[in-house]
Amino acid sequence: MFFERPGGGERAILVHLEGQDPEAREDPQEFQELANSAGADTVAFVSVSRHQPSAKFLIGSGKVEEIRDLVKAEDVELVIFNHTLTPSQERNLEREFECRVLDRTGLILDIFAQRARTHEGKLQVELAQLEHMSTRLVRGWTHLERQKGGIGLRGPGETQLETDRRLLRVRIRQIKSRLEKVRSQREQARRGRRRADIPSVSLVGYTNAGKSTLFNALTTSEVYAANQLFATLDPTLRRLELDDLGPVILADTVGFIRHLPHKLVEAFRATLEESSNADLLLHVIDSHEPERDQQIDQVLRVLGEIGADQLPMLEVYNKIDLLEGVEPQIQRDGEGKPQRVWLSAREGKGLDLLRQTIAELLGEDLFVGTLCLPQRLGRLRAQFFELGAVQEETHDERGASLLSVRLPRIELNRLVSREGLQPSEFLAQHTLQ
């Protein structure tokens, strides 16, 4: 019932409030793009200047009358507000306009419902929709206050509204239980990757910043990428081979947006955990976007909500093909550590710089060098081979093994400490990456 979309767009009026405090302010252009992404056929865009929102309608009664007349004149089926409406405001406005009213959260949920492709994605969207709907059950249902009648059913019993709420709670519990299984399966897969010492890199960023285009360019995949908000919902993982580092797992994730509804953050927690468990985050930023600083703040805020704000992060400024005089480059801090990479995923410019930077950042804890192991440490030599860490083996004049190894430093320390030794005791030569 939640995923069968109407074939054509719906005639809609968009209502945007100006004059609110900067924290609560929404972007009118982004609102228009959201409506287009949902398939709305915009008849009119109404901008309302109001510093003190009305408790009954959010907007003033004069504007309500103006929009009501517009709804009747243009045969409008839907009025969308670029703000969060309370259930009572939504009901009051529907009563006045005599058509459906949707707030910003409902609009984003509708887009998510259209974009969800996998079973998990659909479950997550349905959960968010049901939790949003649970506060709005009374809307438009005149029969819900009648009690059940009939032989054996008279007397005190459930009203239809109570029945609907109970069924809603049951369905929400079922979905949460299924998503818990998905979460444990993802955690199992992550543990397997950690055991294999394969680092994970997660693409995060504002919606439509070009994450999927970059993902496709790096991994030569064909993930759906389009110039629209929330083109990607379901996370995709691919193996990426990097020079001087080896394989890494690259994850493409759902984009963030200003005031992303908390219900969605909670529902998509299993998906977003791909980001919160990554070894490195690539924060993809639309360098051509006039409000990119605000978008960066919003992404960092959502990362804080999912506990990923303390992870190592590299800023990737994408779409430099839309800027004049900007060439692909790596920017470093005072200590020479890479901070941001400027590139164009669509044109394929600067991808080699990004690969080089990822390898540099992930290789900080990587040991690359030659170990001199005497014959008595044959068991230790065998363990290096079992891990696949040996790149080359030669022998010196005393018969000791000279192993050229490449493995995480933590793994090297673990193996050596079992023998009661220190790595420095048998280093022939080494370099750190």
Short description:
The chain has 433 residues and is an alpha/beta fold. Helix content is 39%, strand content 22%.
Structural description of this entry:
With 433 residues, this protein is α/β, with parallel strands linked by helices. The protein has three domains: 11-102, 3-Layer(aba) Sandwich (Rossmann fold), CATH 3.40.50.11060; 197-362, Rossmann fold (3-Layer(aba) Sandwich); 366-432, Alpha-Beta Plaits. It is 39% helix and 22% strand. The protein has 13 helices and 15 strands. The strands form three sheets. Strands 6-7-5-8-9-11-10 form a seven-stranded mixed sheet, with helices on both faces. It starts with 10 loop residues before the first strand and ends with a strand. Residues 1-8, 139-150 and 429-433 have low confidence and may be disordered.
Largest sheet: 7 strands, mixed
Q: From the 3D coordinates, which CATH architecture of the largest domain would you assign?
A: 3-Layer(aba) Sandwich
Q: What's the quaternary structure here?
A: single chain
Order of helices and strands: EHEHEHEHHHEHEEHHEHEEEHEHEEHE
Strand order, main sheet: write it out. Answer: 6-7-5-8-9-11-10
CATH topology of the largest domain, which one? Answer: Rossmann fold
Q: Write down the Rg.
A: 28 Å
What number of structural domains do the residues give? 3
- CATH evolutionary superfamily of the largest domain: P-loop containing nucleotide triphosphate hydrolases
Q: Please report which band the strand proportion falls in: under 5%, 5-15%, 15-25%, 25-35%, 35-45% or over 45%.
A: 15-25%
Note poorly predicted spans: 1-8, 139-150, 429-433
Treating each run of at least 4 consecutive H or I residues as one helix, how many helices? 13
In whole angstroms, how far apart are the ends? 54 Å
Q: Based on helices, strands and strand pairing, what is the structural class?
A: alpha/beta
Please write the CATH class name of the largest domain.
Answer: Alpha Beta
What is the molecular shape? elongated
* Rounded average pLDDT: 79
Percent helix: 25-40%
Number of strands: 15
